[in-house]
Design goal:
Layout (H helix, E strand, L loop, with lengths): L2 H23 L13 E8 L3 E6 L9 E5 L6 H12 L8 H11 L9 E6 L2 E7 L13 E5 L12 E9 L2 E7 L3 E8 L3 E12 L5 E11 L12
Antiparallel strand pairs: 1-2, 1-11, 3-4, 4-5, 5-7, 6-9, 7-8, 8-10, 9-10, 10-11
């Protein structure tokens, strides 16, 4: 495999791991009240009825959590430290070749992701994410109306989001896919936080049920350490 192609392929997997690390590693210090944490409410109707509300930080990365992440909330120094940790054998002293590769990755657009929302509890999980085809110009740091692509594929057009949704019933995951495009209304997206509403309809992948999903969320700005590039 061509070295540059191999590096890009490896970085794709590392990018996903790093995004997951940002989500799971977010610091919620003891003096942060529930009112200051990310929250999500979801209502499912149709062939399945469900109402749920999740607050971040109670079980980080566990069965009940909600998180929003974006490159816009991670400053350059922390981003470089994170990328170096995944691309250098010794993060404290990368080789000249590793440093050159890290410099190239720091020029990536996006470096990690322009927008990612994940939420779950013991009854459901939902995810909204921008694909790597969405550059900073396609999803700028401001309120916006964003279409959610239908289907289950990973590829999306620039400026589109993809969605994942599943219900947990009798201990088993029941997967759904969008049967037509949905929408995310970002009413706030800045250095203080993100707020918005989303809606879509979906059909059971291995069944016949159809559902309508509506949700809302609110998240303070945070990075790998709370407030890393924030104005809160």
């Amino acid at each position: 495999m061509n070295r540059s192609v191999g590096q890009r392929w490896n970085w794709g997997w590392k990018r996903m791991s790093l995004v997951a690390g940002v989500l799971l590693g977010t610091v919620y210090v003891s003096d942060v009240s529930a009112a200051e944490r990310a929250t999500l409410q979801v209502e499912v109707s149709g062939d399945v009825s469900l109402k749920a509300s999740v607050t971040a930080g109670d079980t980080p990365g566990g069965p009940a959590d909600v998180n929003v992440t974006t490159d816009y909330w991670i400053n350059d120094a922390q981003m470089r430290e994170m990328i170096t940790g995944l691309n250098a054998k010794r993060a404290a002293s990368p080789t000249p070749e590793e440093t050159k590769h890290i410099d190239e990755l720091m020029k990536s657009d996006p470096r990690l992701t322009t927008f990612l929302l994940r939420a779950s509890d013991p009854t459901f999980s939902v995810g909204l994410s921008a694909g790597t085809s969405s550059k900073y110009k396609d999803l700028p740091f401001k309120p916006a109306h964003l279409p959610i692509s239908a289907g289950t594929g990973l590829s999306t057009a620039p400026g589109e989001l993809r969605a994942t949704f599943k219900l947990i019933q009798s201990g088993k995951a029941v997967l759904f896919k969008l049967d037509k495009p949905g929408a995310l209304e970002l009413t706030q997206f800045d250095k203080k936080g993100a707020k918005g509403t989303f809606s879509f309809t979906a059909k059971e992948i291995n069944g016949t049920r159809s559902i309508s999903v509506k949700g809302s969320f609110s998240s303070p700005c945070h990075g790998p350490i709370r407030g890393s590039a924030c104005a809160i």
